[in-house]
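This section describes the prediction task in plain terms. A model, or a person checking by hand, is given the sequence of a single protein chain and must write out its three-dimensional structure as a string of tokens. No templates, partner chains or ligands are provided. The sample shown here is typical of the held-out split.
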Amino acid sequence: MSVYITREMIRDAASAAKGESVATLTRRLARMVVRQVQRRRAIAQLNAMDDDQLRDIGIERSQIRQAVSGFTDRDLGLPRADEQRGTAPHRTPGGLAA
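The expected answer:
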């Protein structure tokens, strides 16, 4: 599977990281690439379903790309940005931040 880093991705990462380090820009760009890969996987998985299965989850085959484009990072199984760097608040067994 090919993944392309587009000018738009670089521009978006650079504008989001304005005034931050090159490392931050690189992390943002890497996250965009991973997000793109996950979206392609989701599209492939949905395309592999038959029409009855798609209907059961409420989408038509022609709506797959549109549906996947609306997925959040959580929907795609990506950790939050602060979890990637290990700066997320510690969670207690009850789910509360410590």
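For orientation: Confidence is low (pLDDT under 50) at residues 88-92, 94-98.
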